[in-house]
Give the backbone structure.
Amino acid sequence: MRLRFGLISNLALSFVALTVVMQAANHVSDSDFRDTAFRKQEYDRVVFIVQQIEPHIQQEEFRLKLAAAAVSQQLRGATLAQTPLDVEKVAPLLAEVAEREGLDILETTDEKGNVSYRRHGPIGDKERSHYWGTEEALLGTPTTSTAPISEGALIVHSEPIHADARIVGSLTVGRHLGKRFVD
């Protein structure tokens, strides 16, 4: 026994099928529209945050460069920029400058990139500096960089240490940009 549909039944089934297809297409396009709108909103939010924070980061970069200059001046003034750096003689001076300048990081290396002084933490034998910019400083180029850390971000400035017109090591100074920075 075959079911026969009349013209009206066929039109009704076609209308139902067309309605289902249109609803599915509408759902997909609406979902894409919402997704695009959400991404645009998130992008705009990130741009706004960057615009608010960028001047502060630039100011912090400037302050780090001034702090590095102050440390370098102390090293030159005390005629401590020698090969190798006399760590026992410099440590109290560097700690005092780091405290005065509010530095979270202060590290020096010899001309090979081995850490000779670190404000916080022990130094392993022939330990290389892990801060980005140290190698560039040893080649004569001062560098400022940022990196994400668990407490926020880290901004560091590295520059060469000169003695008699030659590079005898590098100096890296830095600050944590966490809650303290945002407040």
User: Anything to note?
Assistant: The CA atoms of residues 36 and 160 lie 48 Å apart. The longest helix spans residues 7-77. The chain has a mean pLDDT of 80. Helices lie at 7-77, 87-101, 134-138, 179-182.
